[in-house]
Amino acid sequence: MHSNYHGNHLEALKKQYFSDPKRRISLAKGETLLTQGKHNDRLYLMLEGTAAAYVNKHGGGRYELFQSGKEMFIGVYSFFSKSFVSSATVITQEPCLVAYIDQYQIAVDNGKSESLFEQFMPIVVENLLHRMQKEQAVVFEKEQALKKLIQTEKLAGLGQMAAGIAHELNNAISVVERNTSWLKTYMKELIAEHHQDEMPFFQLGLEQGRELSTREIRKHAKDLMESLDISREEAKKLAETGINPKLIEVYGASFDEAIPRIHHYWEMGTSLHDMSIAARMTAHVVRSVKALAVKRSVKEVDLDVNDTIREAFILLTSPLRHVQLNTDLTDVPLIFANRGELVQVWTNLIRNAIEALMHHNFSAPVIKIRTLYERGNVIVQIIDNGPGIPKDILPKILQPNFTTKERGLDFGLGLGLPIVARIIDHHNGDLSVQSQPGVTVFNVSIPAQEGGLF
């Protein structure tokens, strides 16, 4: 979402709405800008400095929800939801300069007859996505700390720590989920009412997200250039969306002029799709942390393995940029499994493969993910073209106390694999690995659900 478009769009908004020197406030370090539960009818833009948002904990105290730096908005939820009640306390961490508008602000005519919310919508989505990503990073850092404790602490102590961390994160996740759900509903209603032609593209992004790999996008773009007689850049934008060309017939002969708008609405939908997935998975991590002290976790019927793999891709969006990802996700039977635990399995295995490739600076790193069905089992294969795992290490990598780092190596195998093996065993499955220089294959086999359909 960070692009020239958004940079130019933000500059335009700053000039139109936040250039009045009478609507600027200078704050010293440690001053309170907003107070949780108190009235706020303003939307603030941070011009200089940083501030942290805190939420009160049950029983006293508080925890940090997010940080806002330069060119980030504060008070988004209370302002645009029109509740005018701040959901967090915001305190400056250094001297700050903020500009603001209030509930009486009239939309400036930008030549597109857009409402105030429509003009701010792309930037609001970007800000919320940024906060979501920061919260996700914090949660997964906590999760990694808990995984280390699994091998060093007694179960009772671990359970107590897990409950404490889950309690710290629970309110924050609720805020993220609530804000994301509200924004999805509001934007769907707004676009359906005022931008009906673009609604199918927004809906497509919202429902499917970013499904295509880089390789698939390149191929699709080439086909679109030839079939629609459009430029390479226009073809690339359309190819990213995976849109069926028939969907753009509503624009007739001028559809090429609508391509940037089509891509823009699709991208807003995909951002909200990604935010929803991240919110759901973050909430699952919190529930998983709470469940560390109990024996069994909840499983779902009719679970599609391919869906859990795609959710793992979303959580690994940043590291996956460093490799070529090839996918062959075929239709397989449904299974009886815990969605969040499977996402954690794929996240661990794919991250391990990425780390192995990056550690050895491969010039053309490739990871391939396959799903298939064999003899009553759903098989997931994670294949990389990395250096391979040495033969003396290979038989030991699933042992709980084994780590490559103690031996001067770094294959990303030390922490995650024993946990992965434990989760797969809990699903009555099997984990195996074959490796040699140039190809390493992790095979995960999980029984298909009895009577499961393709």
What does this structure look like?
By secondary structure, the chain is of the alpha+beta class. The protein has 3 domains: 1-105, Jelly Rolls; 111-295, no CATH class; 301-447, Histidine kinase-like ATPase, C-terminal domain (Heat Shock Protein 90). Helices cover 47% and strands 19% of the residues. The chain is built from 12 helices and 15 strands. The chain has a 5-stranded mixed β-sheet with strand order 10-12-13-15-14, covered by helices on one side. A 4-stranded antiparallel β-sheet has the order 1-8-3-6. A hairpin with a 2-residue loop joins strand 14 and strand 15 (439-447). It is globular and about 70 Å long. The protein starts with a helix and ends in a 7-residue tail after the last strand. Residues 291-296 and 405-415 have low confidence and may be disordered.
Question: How are the elements arranged and paired?
Answer:
Layout: H1 4-17, E1 24-27, E2 32-34, E3 42-48, E4 51-56, E5 62-68, E6 73-74, H2 76-80, E7 89-92, E8 96-102, H3 116-152, H4 155-194, H5 199-208, H6 214-228, H7 232-241, H8 255-290, E9 300-303, H9 305-315, H10 317-320, E10 324-329, E11 335-337, H11 339-359, E12 366-374, E13 377-384, H12 416-426, E14 430-436, E15 439-447
Parallel strand pairs: 10-12
Antiparallel strand pairs: 1-8, 2-7, 3-6, 3-8, 4-5, 4-7, 9-11, 12-13, 13-15, 14-15
